[in-house]
Amino acid sequence: MTNYVWLIPVLPLAGFLVNGLFGSRMSRKVVSWIANLTIFASFVFALVLYIHMLGTPALSEEGIHNILFPWLNVGAFHINFAFLFDRISGTMTLMVAGVGFLIHVYSVGYMAEEDGYFRYFAYLNLFMFAMLTLVLADNLLLMFVGWEGVGLCSYLLIGFYYTTKVASDAGKKAFLVNRIGDFGFLLGMFLLFYLFGTLQFPQMKEIILSHHILPELTTGLITIATLLMFVGAVGKSAQLPLYVWLPDAMAGPTPVSALIHAATMVTSGVYMIVRLNFLFQLAPNTLLIVAWVGGITALFAATIGTVQNDIKKVLAYSTVSQLGYMFLGLGVGAFVAGFFHIITHAFFKALLFLGSGSVIHAMHHAYHHAGIHDKDPQDIRNMGGLRKYMPVTYWTFLVATLAISGFPVFSGFFSKDEILWKAFASGHKTLWAIGAFAALLTSFYMFRLIYVAFLGNFRGGEKEEEGLHESPRSMTVPLTILGILAAVGGFIGFPRIFHLPNILEEVLEPMIPAVNPVHYLHNVSTEWTMMGISVAIAILGWLIARTFYAGESAKLVEGLSNTFSYIHKLLLNKYYVDEIYFALVVHPVKRIGEFLWYYIDVILIDGTVNLAGMLATCCGRVITLFQNGSVKMYAFSMLTGILILFWIFVG
Amino acid sequence: MVPLIDYLILSAVLFTIGIIGILIRRNIITIFMSIEIMLNSVNLAFVAFSRFLGNMDGQIVVFFIFAVAAAEAAVGLALVVAWFKLKESIQVDDMKLLKG
């Protein structure tokens, strides 16, 4: 069984091949069965393997190492095509395949009436293959293959509605911005190979643990290498300053946003750093930068999220913000807490996106029913009172909101609180304050969504109201399952003061040794106090949202946004970051391109080539004068020639 | 006995007449005839040399030239007929289609 780890990524690949090649000739039912079954089989197999691994002492230390074949052998450069199923990658695989499966099921209902059905499921399966390759890779190069693969699928799926310009532009933007990050990843990989002579995780770890590399020689280089890897993570996980592609990526179908741009792909940057924790722990300066980038992103994105009116945009900025929390956790050395937040975030954010998809689906149908085509089904200002019509969506959305806001018992409470506590306990008080304030904003904007979209009265016509209905079973069942996970998912990581087993920490502990341990403050009463503050913050955010948005208090919001119209405009326009990037990067690059095109290509290169051609043509013109078509002229020339030759040689 | 030089002079005169005919005449039939004159002037030279050297090779070559000339005339006249059908003219000045 341990030799078949490769089945986990390859099963969805098979699904992709079958659906991609023959999907157009198969019925929708067959396509969705193939897509769903392959990923479900992957999940079940991963689960069996996981239990087997944890139950077998020999495997649980090292993980299952499944070497398929030697891949590259150039000089000292040996790379195997190999998968590593250990405690970190196994846990991640379970999350990816599990959430991925639920979203596949949900997609069956959501995409039922869309064109390109088989294409959608083929891409989705290809994505699962790439993502699982990324997670299970035993070396950085294979991870990079998955890393690029998920980028490609992200591009394909963002641009799924490729007939609209917004979607195809968003796809291109995501691809290009990710390219910058990938550049860092590649350079980091080269540097790591230079330092270690290998790219395999277990070997790199061994070299570090056995002190084969002298720290005083390499600390600087390791800092640079880890920083470069972090650049890759910043691109993939949408952190400042490369986060701009994620909000635009919402142009794709909503289940894609849930799967790729909330639960799995965007967390791969965080996962990569967790995977390389032994390396990052050697570079405290990098960790400090990671923490600050994460913290600032968390706050920055949260502020934008508070004023957006597109339900998916709010969730997109929320994702950027939550990813910031994860990096904040990693940066203060709390790798387990960061990883914990990946998992809980996958549950509740996938749930939020699927919930929003359900809402958009319903709004879309309502408008269709009423014959309205010009209204935006994603604008929360057009919604309101949806609770009545879609109870399952409402309740699951509420659970996810409670989870992300950090209400006690729900999953987000445990993971976010763990990160904030570790930030505080490691002495980064400013970072803790930033995180806490972002948590307040998070709670605020999430409850704003609840109040504006689900409570109050419907802000559309009666005809539209008739068209509102709960989504089909294939959508509500995944919502319910994710709702349960979002509610209880936090129980895998109880904080120490609860005196309950922290399953996640026990599982990951052997894989995340403290090479350079961060000294945390251990003070039970302080931890309780901080937890109390977190809960108070969450409740405060809810109360503020309630004051502003519950009932008929819209005037209050209007007054407030008029008083602070500059700030409101600044936030509504997302700090003009897109415009700044356009002016600073896109525009100059375009100008350089135009310069190269016109002056270098058209004038210099084309000019030279055309000049040569023109010279040949001119000579030809002159010579053609002699070829006048008159046979007598030719005969005369010939005779003259012969006579001249005679005169030279004979006479 | 007529000396060799007289035959050669006659041959050269005929050849020159042929060349001049080709160069100055415009009727393609006349040009053909000029070519025949040139061929026959060469034949004359061959036969004269053959006689004076007592070698039969020259006379054999003359038979070949007759055969070639006949073939050439047949093909050439056929072309002229075809051309005439197309353009209703046998003036060489009209044949300038290959002008560069």
Tags for this model:
heterodimer, A: mainly alpha, 27 helices, 2 strands, globular, B: 100 residues, mainly alpha, Helix Hairpins, 3 helices
Description:
The complex is a heterodimer of chains A (651) and B (100). Helix content of chain A is 73%, strand content 3%. Chain A is mainly α. In chain A, helix 2 packs parallel to helix 5 and helix 9 runs antiparallel to helix 12. With 100 residues, chain B is mainly α. In chain B, helix 1 runs antiparallel to helix 2 and helix 2 packs antiparallel against helix 3. The mean pLDDT of chain B is 90. Chains A and B meet through helix 27 of A and helix 1 of B.
Most extensive interface, chain pair and sizes:
A-B, 13 and 12 residues
Given the helix and strand composition of chain B, which structural class is it? Answer: mainly alpha
Radius of gyration of chain A: 30 Å
Rounded radius of gyration of chain B (Å): 17 Å
Residues in helix, % of chain A: over 70%
So what's the oligomer here? Answer: heterodimer
What's the helix-strand series of chain A? HHHEEHHHHHHHHHHHHHHHHHHHHHHHH
Low-confidence stretches of chain B: none
Q: Can you tell me the CATH architecture of chain B? A: Orthogonal Bundle
At CATH level 3, the topology of chain B is Helix Hairpins
Beta strand count of chain A: 2
| Number of spatially distinct domains of chain B | 1
The biggest beta sheet of chain A is recorded as: 2 strands, antiparallel
Helical content class of chain B = over 70%
Characterize the largest beta sheet of chain B: strand count, sense, and whether it forms a barrel.
none
